[in-house]
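Sequence, please.
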């Protein structure tokens, strides 16, 4: 029996048995009673306990770093594209939907890698795990299913992100009627010399000022190719609606608010502002 084990066993013994210990062992025993945690290894949390770790809930999730998230979820950044589809179509000979714009280069890649590791993401974006993932309550799998939901009304069925607040920002439709275009951008772009800045050099110039985007890089890339702009404003649309972006005031802006903008916010959400403490 090791000395540490012996001391721990003696901790439950009657006091009279301790009188027979040599002085040096009695001293070690006193230390063992004062700091028992130092004699035992910290137990590793199991999966069920880890799911309820405080980092998955407010307010800890707001301060979580990518390193903390990836300590358990590192697999999301591992290359894992299938060499071929279940139907036998090779990934080397088929174009994925996101490969159809000039701004994407390279082979097919996984969802999280495209958003965090691709050259385009590193150039134009500053996405973090918590940009999209605002916690994960194991009990919250449909609206109003949990008293500890991370958001008002709960998440949409089986979703762990609020798509209407995150994905839709870059994967919604272009708001063609509000912009006054006669037809969708692919059919109208020739009329505007395939140049978004032909109008937006003076209109809505206070843009992209959020902590998940690299505003200067976006402006520079947009000046070179309208596909950079269109990629996030209709070119990679997953949804049939558009995102109601905050209408920040810009120099020369008409003080009269148009009807379509009557309910638009004038500032970005607090957690996305450049001065946000997260």
């Amino acid at each position: 029996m090791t000395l540490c084990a012996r001391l721990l066993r003696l901790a439950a013994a009657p006091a009279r048995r301790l009188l027979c210990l040599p002085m040096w062992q009695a001293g070690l025993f006193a230390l063992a009673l004062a700091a028992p945690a130092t004699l035992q290894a910290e137990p590793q949390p199991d999966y069920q306990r880890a799911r309820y770790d405080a980092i998955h809930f407010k307010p800890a999730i707001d301060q979580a770093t990518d390193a903390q998230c990836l300590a358990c979820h590192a697999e999301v950044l591992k290359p894992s594209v299938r060499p071929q589809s279940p139907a036998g179509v090779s990934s080397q000979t088929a174009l994925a939907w996101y490969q159809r714009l000039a701004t994407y280069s390279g082979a097919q890649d996984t969802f999280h890698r495209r958003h965090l590791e691709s050259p385009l993401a590193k150039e134009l974006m500053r996405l973090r795990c918590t940009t999209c993932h605002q916690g994960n309550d194991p009990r919250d799998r449909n609206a109003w299913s949990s008293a500890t939901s991370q958001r008002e009304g709960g998440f949409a069925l089986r979703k762990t992100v609020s798509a209407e607040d995150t994905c839709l920002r870059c994967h919604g439709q272009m708001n063609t009627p509000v912009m006054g275009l006669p037809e969708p951008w692919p059919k109208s772009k020739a009329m505007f010399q395939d140049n978004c800045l032909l109008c937006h050099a003076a209109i809505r110039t206070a843009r992209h000022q959020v902590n998940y985007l690299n505003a200067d890089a976006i402006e520079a890339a947009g000046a070179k190719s309208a596909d950079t702009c269109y990629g996030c404003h209709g070119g990679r649309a997953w949804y049939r609606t558009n995102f109601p972006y905050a209408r920040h005031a810009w120099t020369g802006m008409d003080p009269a608010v148009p009807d379509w903008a009557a309910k638009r916010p004038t500032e970005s959400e607090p957690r996305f502002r450049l001065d946000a403490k997260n």
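Residues 45 and 53 are 9 Å apart (CA to CA).
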